[in-house]
Specification:
The complex is a heterodimer. Chain A has 10 helices and 14 strands. Chain A is an alpha+beta fold. Chain A folds into 4 domains: 94 residues, no CATH class; 53 residues, no CATH class; 65 residues, SH3 type barrels; 76 residues, no CATH class. By secondary structure, chain B is of the alpha+beta class. Chain B has 4 domains: 94 residues, Arc Repressor Mutant, subunit A (Orthogonal Bundle), CATH 1.10.10; 57 residues, no CATH class; 93 residues; 73 residues, no CATH class. Chain B contains 11 helices and 13 strands. In chain B, helix 5 runs antiparallel to helix 6 and helix 10 crosses helix 11. The chains are: A alpha+beta, B alpha+beta. At the A-B interface, helix 1, helix 2, helix 6, helix 7 and strand 5 of A face helix 1, helix 2, helix 3, helix 4 and helix 5 of B.
């Protein structure tokens, strides 16, 4: 499934629909759906499905279950007045939901301490986004999450970084529908002036990336934000919008020209290389080290990566990949003589 | 086993019915009342026989429900203090419901949706997914962000999961920690105070039970499985986490190195963009938290970087480069 996170619907789909709901998720959904239905006298299954990012069948199943659920009541027999009721004809014939009787639930549930903590830490992580420029508003939002939790949110925190100027310019160029121009130094060490139509901003831990249509290459390219300098919002209209381009799910796409390199890596450090290990790579563990393969587009990136993991990752083959790493490290060391 | 015992009620129906029943009761229900009357239990309840399986089921269900933030409480029956069979269970409405004065604007809802997207793995992704379901129950329609975002923060350190669980339950944990330069991991016994993410790396801040005082541990240097003890500790105030963050900021400010970068190189572009870096021609003053992580990072730049100071960092980077060259000889 394409995850064009530009429209939040498919972005969420990449998270939600891919996996079947567990019992705890289903319970949370039922407890969340009831107040939503209480606030809507009549709502279509389709609209509810869109709102909750679920399939229509998941909505119908949940509504049917709510329609027969309730409390034991005075008689402990689940009498009619002790149960929720819905307009069954509206559901079965019109695909509409009308809640006609409710019990027990009056309002939305609180967040759990860990749920609130996850959202608060997520907000902290995103503090460099231009949407977060209003720090006071973000602080208010975090306070509301804390107050809306059933217990003090767990002590989980992400160090905030300042608002990123490049991110703000990217947003401005999308807002105005115009191209962005900047100097870009690629991992081969080549510097070029690029003009792009920004499509999506992605991140992985401390690193931020721009996915964009590159007018120089006439293709979608991924740019590391910390390799961009002198960005300028142009007056040239974009030719490719987020809706026109299907972006691949993964940040690092494989290409037919990729080189496969065999490496030994300390087992404990292997997760650091997970994004480079292609699906189906043969991996053998021996004495706390893993022999596996990584996929790289050229050795310029590889030599930097391996040199930043001294003693932890070693290239086994091919020989010219080993040589590229050796020469890079030796050239670095020789500067200290 | 009776015919009724064969009726299979789905798990979510049993849990949903339990929450409804406990929300609806003021006085609380005894375990026996729950097992004999609530949908999903009553079908399997035996009036005469042994209900121990069902009781165990109820214990697990209680844990599952509490994990979702539902405040399931127990009351002792008047005059029956200490009698477990007569404990009464209920969910107090005020603690269950989101306070009515809390609402979220469309802009806020958009930001929270993005915040939830940050987590794609581990139990924290499930927690953020459930938080978003609860948020959506408020019916707020979100704004589309101007540009699409796909943020992702990984929790790939295996220690993350047990540490965050221990932090939540306030239990002391034990793990082997390998400090750079030491040959053997040393066992640490820690009361967790906070999990802090800095520069893409997770740090445990905790109180060392043997050494006394607080310490920071990089999760990636935890080299053994984390053992959870049964010893609970009194929760630390939120100010303890703020103090830890301030201390980390202070360390960052205090530690600095000067490097010479090759003009126009990857190192010159990227290192100049590190937070707090000052640029003076080709000389950059960098700030850092961890000496060894900085040395690794600088070694990756090969000949594009020459460390000017401190001398220990020069030596460390040079040794790393020599090691890599030798490993690939």
């Amino acid at each position: 499934m394409a995850s064009a996170v530009g429209n939040s619907k498919s972005g969420k789909a990449a998270r939600g629909k891919a996996q079947p709901l567990q019992a705890q998720d289903k319970l949370t959904f039922l407890l969340s759906l009831v107040p939503y239905l209480m606030d809507h006298d009549r709502v279509s299954v389709a609209q509810t499905a869109t709102h909750f990012d679920m399939t229509k069948e998941q909505i119908r199943d949940a509504v049917r279950l709510i329609g027969v659920s309730g409390i034991p009541g005075e008689t402990a027999q689940y009498q009619h007045e002790d149960l929720f009721d819905i307009s069954w004809d509206d559901l079965e014939e019109n695909d509409q939901i009308v809640l006609t009787h409710r019990v027990a639930i009056d309002d939305s549930p609180r967040f759990s301490a860990r749920e609130a903590a996850a959202l608060i830490a997520g907000l902290q992580y995103l503090s460099s986004l231009p949407e977060h420029a209003d720090r006071a508003a973000i602080a208010t939002l975090m306070a509301k999450l804390s107050r809306g939790a059933s217990a003090t949110p767990s002590q989980l925190t992400v160090q905030s970084s300042g608002t990123d100027e490049t991110l703000a310019l990217i947003r401005d160029s999308v807002d105005a529908g115009v191209q962005l121009e900047f100097d870009y130094l690629n991992s081969r060490g080549e510097r070029e002036r690029r003009r792009v139509d920004p499509l999506r901003i992605e991140s992985l831990d401390a690193d931020w990336y721009l996915r964009a249509w590159c007018h120089l290459r006439e293709a979608v390219r991924t740019f590391r934000l910390d390799r961009i300098s002198n960005p300028v919002v142009t007056t040239e209209p974009i030719t490719h919008g987020a809706a026109d381009v299907k972006l691949p799910d993964t940040l690092f796409e494989g290409s037919a020209d990729d080189l496969i390199v065999t490496i030994d890596v300390a087992t404990s450090a292997a997760p650091l290389l997970a994004d480079y290990i292609p699906d189906g790579a043969v991996t053998v563990e021996k004495d706390g080290r893993l022999r596996t393969s990584v996929r790289v587009s050229h050795y310029h990136g590889l030599k930097r990566l391996i040199a930043s993991m001294p003693g932890v990752a070693i290239v086994i083959g091919p020989l010219d990949a080993r040589a590229a790493v050796r020469e890079w490290a030796a050239a670095g060391a020789s500067r200290y003589q | 086993m009776s015919a009724a015992a064969q009726v299979r009620v789905p798990v979510e129906e049993r849990l949903f019915s339990l929450v409804l029943a406990l929300l609806a009761t003021e006085a609380g229900l005894t375990k026996n009342e729950i097992l004999s009357t609530v949908q999903g239990y009553r079908q399997r309840y035996s009036n005469s026989g042994d209900n121990s399986n069902l009781e165990r089921q109820f214990e697990r269900d209680k844990d599952d429900i509490r994990e979702l933030g539902v405040p399931l409480e127990t009351l002792e029956s008047p005059g029956q203090v200490g009698n477990n069979q007569n404990l009464r269970y209920r969910i107090p409405r005020g603690d269950y419901e989101l306070p009515s004065d809390i609402s979220f604007s469309p802009e806020e809802t958009t930001l929270l949706n993005l915040a939830a997207m940050v987590w794609r793995e581990g139990s924290i992704s499930g927690e953020s997914r459930r938080a978003i379901l609860k948020l959506r129950s408020l019916g707020v329609v979100t704004d589309e962000p101007v540009i699409g975002y796909a943020p992702r923060l990984r929790v790939q350190d295996v220690a993350f999961e047990p540490l965050s669980a221990a932090l939540d339950k306030h239990v002391i944990i034990r793990f082997g920690y390998l400090k750079p330069g030491e040959q053997e991991a040393r066992t640490r016994t820690i009361a967790p105070i906070a999990l802090i993410q800095r520069e893409g790396r997770w740090i445990l801040h905790g109180q060392d039970q043997d050494a006394g005082g607080t310490r920071n541990f990089l999760l990636r240097r935890i080299v053994t499985p984390v053992t959870t003890t049964n010893t609970r500790y009194a929760p630390f105030p939120a100010s303890a986490m703020e103090a830890a963050k301030a201390e980390l900021d202070e360390i960052w400010d205090r530690r600095s190195a000067v490097v010479e970068v090759e003009p126009g190189s990857d190192a010159s572009t990227r290192l100049a963009k590190r937070p707090g870096t000052t640029v003076d021609g080709n000389l950059l003053t960098l700030h850092y938290s961890d000496f060894d992580l900085l040395a690794d990072e600088l070694a990756g730049f090969g000949p594009e970087v020459l460390v000017a100071s401190p001398p220990e960092l020069r030596t460390a980077v040079r040794n790393r480069l020599l090691r890599t060259a030798a490993d690939h000889g």
